[in-house]
Write a structure and sequence with these properties.
This protein is mostly helical. It contains 43 helices and 10 strands.
Length: about 900
């Protein structure tokens, strides 16, 4: 991934439809002009430049003019430099004839003229361009502001004119533009924050990105671009652009603009208290304010306008405006749901203090919206003597949300100390212990829960903390033991503990092969969570969706897994809760990797790694980094895989997910051509997870071993697992291994179709590739070519995956299984001595095999062998 600073012209991304529409229109004989309208900053000029470049590539002579208010004062001032030298335009008729004669002489190519800001063009220039257009001597490409302007009307009439109105970019378009400009994936969090600040305005977006790069708040680690949590944005250039836009507003509009900058959105009635309806209508027409969907409130038209206005409001005027608005809000006969929070915020901004009762109401409202930054600001404004159990609990919740587990523990401990009801006590202990667990302070978490349990006699408390102990231990014991202890989870009285325990139970169910039960329990728990008051459970309901996606993966419902993961990731990004973002990104990466989309998986895992590496999050961090390692290895990016391995080795081990770590290590071995080592690693890990009862993970590990040349060793066990594991994935894996072991091309083709239906495109591609190799070995080249065509169709969905089965199937088709393994090792630069040691054969045997391989493949060196087998060398990106 590039980590360049994109200070030059940005790529044209998100306007593909407009470019295609123009290209088709330009090819028509009746085309005369393109008119691109839109508000400032939406990218009109950039699109016009691309269209002009297309004209130049088609052999047209091109010219460009920018109309300005200054140039408009001089007839033909804007386009004089485009006219032939020596032409006298004092006589319009004669002048036009002279221009036309020059433009048509000899073999001179026709001209394409780009006029930027056509609405500022002087009348004489407009008339001349119109005459040239009508005569077919030029084609015109022009940008203009939205609205009717004489010069625009004069040039846009008639047939052959293509009109486009550009709007701001949609979120997905802005995300693609950011990735293209920065040269690599951009975190969902960064995309969301930049879009929210820019409103999809390309010019503002570019300035925000440049400002963040200059300030060091937008950084790339080689995997993904990440934005700091406390980024605020803004640059001098951006302030200048916004200032110029706001400066056009008449002075009489300033009172309502300033009030909106401090308090938006405002009820229309409150806005009319400082500005007439005519003024508001004018501001709406000029694009400075907008009426919200409820048609009873107004706000500034762009998120950045408020910042530009606030910087110019003097302190005492700011105080006066805020206090007046508080008085107006107090006087309303009816209150809006968030009025208490807004008034408390205004009071703090105006005076530095606020009424404690109002602050308490405001905290409740902010917590309901999960606006944790606002909650912290309000809590810190509360006097020390007014802080209660609930106050400390909310402070802990906010720290937990932002992955600050040490201050979270301190706040929850204070809430536990001050608790006066059993619900408060259960809540404080439960969240405190889970905060310690998230920081992998496992023994401390157990000790806190045990001490609380030892001092409790209330049966509801005892029940809740006993189940909480089971949840904590569930991360370090066998999943079957966890399930046995959670038999009565539905009967737990405390909804906070019941919902949390049921969610963890789904993990255990999926681990032991009961994925469909896990899916059903996840859905029931999600629905219960939706019905539960928002302050009952610290996590939002998307927490259950994250685990639902994982359960779908285990069952083999991969399309559903990805859809749910995308939904979770979007919701977590919108909520701006880092711990949710990390886990949602992990679930999305898992779904993408299972589906055979390693590039998408790599981006998702990289975002999860970035969140965890800049916080106290340790729980599951090795599994997250393992996902990144596996994705890089499958793509053949050996350098990035080694970097991911270094991250893994720096993190504490959690047995619950260690199988995934070892699986990722095995894929790294495979990427280096060390298939025997990879198989050994997978088989040893599979034996460990089998002993733990983690049958679903055993099935996945053994399938990977089959893919790396060990199908005959694992086919029988996979068939056994297919009988006990729920969902279609385990049976499909078992049939895949059986077909590989039997080298049965017909069965491989059938399995490929089955895997494709599940959404496992990479496994499907590998199955067909293996079938094609067997067919080619048997000499049926026509049938082999047909199978290879199907392989290419499947592989095209797999984003450049380079697994041994897929990458080498055709090239290595003439080779035996042992020759193929030696060939991969040799192509990866492993010496004959080391190959012999890894395969427990003599060096002479290895060298004889290599000579046979050279002869069969028509190569003479290991470098040629690597190219033939499409094997990445060390440090080479996939």
């Amino acid at each position: 991934m590039s980590t360049r600073c994109p200070t030059d012209r940005w790529p044209l991304t998100g306007r593909e439809i407009e470019v295609e529409t123009f290209t088709q229109a330009w090819a028509g004989r009746g085309f005369h002009a393109l008119m691109i309208a839109g508000r400032p900053g939406v990218g009109k000029s950039r699109l016009a430049e691309e269209c002009l470049a297309h004209a130049a590539r088609q052999g047209w002579r091109t010219g460009r003019a920018t109309a300005t208010a200054v140039a408009a004062a001089v007839p033909l001032g804007a386009i004089a430099h485009l006219l032939p030298e020596g032409v006298d335009l004092s006589d319009p008729v004669k002048g036009f004839s002279e221009v036309a004669a020059v433009l048509t002489q000899g073999k001179r190519p026709r001209s394409a003229i780009f006029v930027d800001d056509l609405h500022l063009l002087d009348a004489a220039s407009a008339v001349l361009l119109r005459q040239l257009l009508d005569a077919g001597l030029i084609r015109l490409i022009a940008t203009t502001r939205t609205g009717d302007v004489p010069a625009v009307e004069a040039l846009s009439g008639g047939d052959g004119v293509l009109r486009m109105t550009l709007d701001t970019l949609r979120p997905e378009q802005a995300g693609r533009l950011l990735a293209a400009a920065l040269g690599g994936p951009v975190s969902r969090h960064a995309q969301h924050r930049f879009y929210a600040a820019s409103g999809g305005n390309v010019l503002f977006l570019r300035e925000l990105v440049l400002g963040a790069l200059a300030a060091g708040t937008l950084t790339g680690d080689g995997e993904i671009w990440q934005l700091e949590e406390d980024w605020r944005g803004g640059t001098p250039r951006l302030a200048e652009l916004i200032g110029a836009r706001l400066a056009a507003a008449p002075e009489r509009t300033r009172p309502v603009l300033d009030l909106l900058a401090l308090t938006e959105p405002l009820p229309l009635a409150d806005a009319q208290a400082v500005a007439s309806l005519d003024i508001l209508a004018d501001l709406e027409a000029t694009g400075l304010i907008r009426v919200l969907d409820d048609e009873d409130s107004v706000a500034l038209a762009h998120p950045l306008y408020a910042e530009g206005l606030r910087e110019q409001i003097p302190t005492l005027r700011r105080r006066k405006l805020l206090l007046e608005q508080i008085a107006r809000t107090h006087a309303h006969p009816t209150r809006r749901p968030d009025d208490a929070m807004r008034m408390a915020t205004w009071q703090l901004a105006a005076t530095g203090t606020a009424d404690p009762a109002l602050l308490a109401q405001a905290v409740t409202i902010a917590r309901h919206a999960r606006d944790y930054r606002q909650v912290v600001a309000l809590l810190r404004a509360m006097p020390e003597e007014t802080r209660t159990t609930d106050t400390w609990f909310l402070m802990g919740e906010c720290h937990f949300a932002f992955l600050e587990f040490t201050p979270a523990d301190e706040a929850f401990a204070r809430a536990q100390e001050l608790a006066t009801t059993r619900d408060q006590f259960i809540s404080a202990v439960k969240e405190r212990t889970h905060s310690l667990l998230a920081a992998t302070r496992y023994d401390e978490a157990l000790e806190v829960n045990a001490k609380a349990l030892a001092t409790s006699t209330d049966p509801v408390v005892v029940e809740a903390l006993t189940m909480n102990d089971t949840c904590l231990r569930g991360f370090g014991v066998l999943p079957a033991i966890t399930l046995a202890a959670m038999t009565d989870v539905d009967k737990v009285v405390s909804p906070r503990v019941r919902i949390s325990a049921a969610t963890l139970k789904t993990v255990a169910l999926e681990a032991v092969g009961r994925a469909q039960e896990a899916e059903e329990l996840c859905l029931r728990t999600y629905e219960e969570h939706l019905r539960t008051p928002i302050d009952t459970v610290i996590e939002p309901p998307i927490w259950q969706l994250i685990f639902l996606s994982m359960a779908h993966c285990g069952a083999g419902h991969l399309a559903e897994a990805r859809a749910v993961a995308l939904r979770s990731a979007a919701a977590a990004t919108e909520a701006n809760v880092p711990y949710m973002r990390a886990h949602a990104a992990y679930a999305l990466g898992l779904a993408d990797l299972s589906s055979g989309r390693p590039v998408d998986a790599r981006s998702a895992f990289a975002e999860a790694v970035a969140v965890s590496s800049t916080s106290d999050l340790m729980l599951g961090a090795r599994a997250i980094a393992a996902g990144l390692l596996a994705s890089c290895a499958i793509l053949g990016d050996l350098g990035a895989a080694d970097e991911a391995l270094q991250i893994i080795e720096s993190l504490p081990i959690l047995e619950m997910w260690e199988g995934r770590v070892q699986s990722a290590r095995a894929w790294r071995e495979a990427a280096h051509g060390r298939l025997a080592s990879a198989r050994t690693m997978l088989l040893e890990t599979a034996a460990l997870v089998r002993a733990a009862g983690a049958l679903s993970e055993e099935s996945a590990l053994l399938t990977d071993a089959a893919r790396l040349g060990g199908a005959a060793d694992v086919a029988d066990r996979l068939a056994e697992l297919a009988e006990v594991c729920q969902g279609p994935f385990a049976p499909a894996r078992a049939r895949f291994a059986r077909a590989l072991a039997a080298q049965d091309p017909d069965l491989l083709a059938q399995v490929a179709a089955e895997l494709e239906r599940l959404g496992a495109d990479l496994l499907a591609a590998e199955a067909v590739a293996a079938a094609a190799a067997v067919i080619r070995q048997r000499g049926d080249n026509r049938r082999a070519a047909a199978a290879e065509a199907v392989t290419a169709t499947y592989a095209a969905r797999c984003q450049g995956a380079r697994t041994p089965l897929l990458a080498t199937a055709r090239a290595a088709a003439p080779l035996t299984a042992r020759e193929r393994e030696i060939a991969l090792l040799a192509a990866n630069g492993v010496t004959s001595k080391d190959i012999a040691a890894s395969l427990t054969v003599s060096v002479r045997t290895v060298n004889n095999h290599i000579q046979h391989i050279y002869g069969k493949l028509g190569v003479t060196t290991r470098r040629e062998l690597a190219r033939t087998l499409d094997v990445p060398r060390a440090g080479q990106a996939g």
